[in-house]
């Protein structure tokens, strides 16, 4: 059997697996009116289907899986999903992205199940701004949960913050002070246009290059990229324990280093976050006997992957909002 390499020579060791579309936050850049149930929505993949999917991906070269949503902690069987991933030979990193709303109560359970990496969405350290952006007043609980993880020595923790002009673009000094003594990474993510947020995007888009110029002017240094890392350009400073990553989807050659594929909660393969095609995989997941056919399908679909997205042209593909595929 072959491996996950596309027509441009890019390898794909990294899978982002959405396990649920629903989310309990109302982030202004994603679900400002909260999650709305879709009529006739398909059931999310179940444990046995997820296990078969991951075994097939691992057999053709996937070594890192990130569990996403929506908000994955809304799945009552989340520990079982993590454990299913941990049981697959070849998967060395099991990550998750969460809003952290149950972090204090559940983080030990996730780690015991096999979680190795955790990203938490925290767009600001200011409580009022956090409420404005997310619709919730849970910042203090999330920050307390982060402190608890750090005290326990969990050193593969990152924070995601979407950069929003007029809402949190004044937060860099606060984040720098936060990173001075905490050995974690923050990922500043450039706001991306989706199918439903065009007016919001035009009002709040903040260019990643502007942030990177501030970092360079303050003696932060760009680090070499790591083989199976995400798309962030990572910066470090000798006076700070933490690191800063910048995810800049509108930058030149952003897609050249693409190394991840996505599967929706209902089992559709997405070759690109902003692609126009979803490839159904669920019909391969009912039986172990279909594992070989699924591996062949994954390899053949890589031949259809485009060189890059077309966000610069305003084409946002199938993504109505980022909760639908986990970003």
- SSE order, one letter for each helix or strand: EHEHEHEHHEHEHHEEEEEEH
How many distinct helices?
9
Characterize the overall form: globular
Q: Structural class of the helices, strands and pairings?
A: alpha/beta
What fold name goes in the CATH topology slot? TIM Barrel
Write down the overall mean pLDDT.
90
What name goes with the CATH superfamily?
Aldolase class I
Report the sheet-strand fraction: 15-25%
Counting structural domains, the number is 1
Helicity range: 25-40%
Query: What is the spatial order of strands in the main beta sheet?
Result: 7-8-9-6-5-4-3-2-1-10-11-12
- Could you name the ranges where pLDDT drops below 50 across 5 or more consecutive residues? none
Count of extended strands: 12
CATH architecture: Alpha-Beta Barrel
CATH C-level category: Alpha Beta
Q: How far is the N terminus from the C terminus?
A: 30 Å
Gyration radius, to the nearest Å?
Answer: 19 Å
Main sheet characteristics = 12 strands, mixed
Description:
The chain is an alpha/beta fold. It has one domain: TIM Barrel (Alpha-Beta Barrel). The chain is built from nine helices and twelve strands. A twelve-stranded mixed sheet has the order 7-8-9-6-5-4-3-2-1-10-11-12, covered by helices on one side. Helix 2 links the parallel strand 2 and strand 3. Helix 3 packs across helix 5. The radius of gyration is 19 Å and the shape is globular. The two termini are 30 Å apart. The mean pLDDT is 90.
